[in-house]
Amino acid sequence: MKNENHNNWEEDQRKKEITMTSSDSRFNQTLRNVQGLLKGRSIPGKVLLTRRSDPLDDSNLKESPPNYERSYSYNDAGTSDRMAKEVEDEVRNTSLQTTTTIVNKLKVSTSNIDHTSKEVQKSSIGARATDSARLAKFTKELSGTTIILEKLRELAWSGIPDYMRPLIWRLILGYAPPNSDRREGVLRRKRLEYLDCVSQYYDIPDSERSDDEINMLRQIAVDCPRTVPDVPFFQQVQVQKSLERILYTWAIRHPASGYVQGINDLVTPFLVVFLSEHLEGSIDNWSISDLPSEKISNVEADCFWCLSKLLDGMQDHYTFAQPGIQRLVFKLKELVRRIDEPVSRHMEEQGLEFLQFAFRWFNCLLIREIPFHLVTRLWDTYLAEGDALPDFLVYIFASFLLTWSDKLQELEFQDMVLFLQHLPTHNWTHQELETVLSRAFMWHMWEPIYIVIVFGSLSMSLWIDQRRKSLE
Questions:
Q1: Which residue windows are transmembrane per the record (predicted)?
Q2: 306 is in which domain, residue-wise?
Q3: Residue 359 lies inside a defined structural domain of this protein
């Protein structure tokens, strides 16, 4: 009898071990599946995202949950395991309800991903900005007496046609009013206000400036010739004078930060976009001296106010010690660790700190890292994000960094630093940029669901193990 009881006890123990092993195996597989999703394995090559308010196909949403659920068979366990299964189902259903809620909230703003080769080919011309259908949508949104900015941002996220970009940037930044009847009057008033500021702060002798203001102006004068040095247009003396006026006036008007190196780069996309309304052809052939002083002043004013609007949303990026940037660099490190643990571990083992390369990325918003002809397309997405831009930058920069995941894992510290400081992007086209943005959007969209699935499943697993032990 004792032997029989002993054998039954051993048999129960084996069943429990098999059940727990099976559970752990399925749980680990779930983690691997989600990690694979976040690493972009489910993204078929270079995809193009188009933000629009069309509802997602409910059939697709219904098919997704089984890929992430942990399965649990009644045949694998005894009574205590069936109780655990019921508890797990309850917790899992709660997690899935939370997940569904998140997905529903994302329906309005998420993108439709086109997987056809035709759309992939179109991505090379810049986010389908020249598609006739998209042009029609932009035209429709801009034709109303009062523009609905949220719809305009959704369209702008995937790229803006060149000739529409100046107007749309002014609108989505809140510089130009959405009401067309007020727009001309507001712009005229703001441009005159800028001229008054230049006259008051810039066009004065050094004897009327404080020592700090003199030093700041000298630093700006040194930095302007260094701005986008590989684009000849920015080496024109008159262009550098325009940059100097804009930067110094902005710094005086924002004493909490003053001028910080890197802000000079942030003016350049605005300058190019607003000059494009007056100068034709390639930027390589532009000469700002061809414009009358009134138009130059208007362009400078638009750059000044749009720069102010942009930096209003990230004020602590440029105050003392730049705490906003330091915070985002830390978030970037954590995000990379969650998405690509091998490359994160390798960088840590080599002693590479994210501040050593990512600080410049956040400080200059990648302007120094990609070819300048791609910058305005990247900034379409930046400006469309609005107040959410600082947080979304973390996903863009993670996607940008992990473009070279395999390469980074082959490099030691010194070579890695040199590689990250001189990334091989000089031959990049719109296609590579669209890939970075698409992947960033996918990670940003799925992370709340990832947290629910992974950490919800982890808590569930621990709770079930504790419950089993209490019933033994």
A1: 441-464
A2: 189-312
A3: yes
